[in-house]
Amino acid sequence: MTTNLPIGPIMLDVGGLTLAADEKEKINHPNTGAVILFSRNYQNPEQVTELINSIRAARNGSLLIAVDQEGGRVQRFQNGFTRLPPAAIYATAPELAEPAGWLMAAELRAVDVDFSFAPVLDIDCGVSEIIGNRSFSTDATLATQLSSLFRKGMNAAGMAATGKHFPGHGAVALDSHLTLPIDERELDEIRAKDLMPFKQLISEGLEGIMPAHVLYPKIDPNPAGFSPFWIQQILRKELNFNGTVFSDDLSMEGAASVGNFPERARLAQLAGCDMILVCNNPAAAEQVLDALPITEDPVREQRLKRMQGKQSLNREQLLQSEKWQRISTLLNTL
């Protein structure tokens, strides 16, 4: 009898609305631990539920299903889901931050998605087009309060939260999907402002964190996601974070400076990432799956298990609930 595979350290994606045979094989690779879904994988709630069922069925063991469903510009599932406002809106309606976190998570849990990569903990410094209104506020104290409420709502719906992009992506103009942004600030300035929401949510039990593909040359020669200083020294030791560290996508141009795909994966792991994302490049994902040694890591396994979705309402129960109807209506008016 084959033993169940543990949750592996690599997050992949899939090409379309249904699973291809070679994708099933990749999902069952010992190094696979999660699948992230994009807009191209989504048609409606029924279709995505079937896709998720087939992804889970393809693996002999546990795996996580993730999506980016922050709201505003970043909401992969739209048709049949409540249209969520960008995070910046909650500064004008703080009483909706927690209900919105609950609704976002409850809708995803109802189709069996484990977690969304949210909330964004970056402080908007007025220069970053890629962050902008994805940030809760330009004010660090307010951003901290609102993101904490949003996470509380997510947790209440049975979903773990992932704060991004550590230690802060809001002060650089360039988009790390296209290039490697450089943040010239000193550590003290970042500590005083950008780290505030991370510090607070970690103290409240934040389950996951994603570092930025940003270089802070006055502090460390490596981009944050490949930096033992940022991940092990600041995040783990100084801030006492004991949850999952997810690399940002290794296919992004912000990651290209450190080498080819197997090299990027190796460096991300060495720096302290528990799970490595390789998206929108199936050949690269195969290279990384085969290049990384297959290792058992009980600590990593424990962290990743905390990202699994908890008990939730099914879609029918959710849509019939007074709470969902009320919050969905309120958010639609925004």
Per-chain topology:
Elements: E1 10-13, H1 21-27, E2 32-37, H2 45-57, E3 64-67, E4 69-71, E5 74-75, H3 97-109, E6 115-116, H4 140-156, E7 162-166, H5 187-192, H6 195-203, E8 208-211, H7 228-238, E9 244-245, H8 261-271, E10 276-277, H9 282-291, H10 298-305, H11 315-320, H12 322-333
Parallel strand pairs: 1-2, 1-10, 2-3, 3-6, 7-8, 8-9
Antiparallel strand pairs: 4-5
Mean pLDDT: 95
The largest beta-sheet arranges its strands as 6-3-2-1-10
Q: Mind telling me the CATH class?
A: Alpha Beta
The tally of beta strands, per DSSP, is: 10
Whole-number tally of structural domains: 1
Helix content: 25-40%
Percentage of β-strand residues:
5-15%
Q: Any low-confidence stretches, pLDDT <50, length ≥5?
A: none
**Major β-sheet profile:** 5 strands, parallel
Rg: 19 Å
**What is the 3D form?**
globular
Q: Determine the CATH topology.
A: TIM Barrel
Distance between the amino and carboxyl termini: 54 Å
Number of helices: 12
Could you give me the name of the CATH homologous superfamily? Answer: Glycoside hydrolase, family 3, N-terminal domain
Reported CATH architecture: Alpha-Beta Barrel
The protein's oligomeric status is single chain
Helix-strand makeup class: alpha/beta
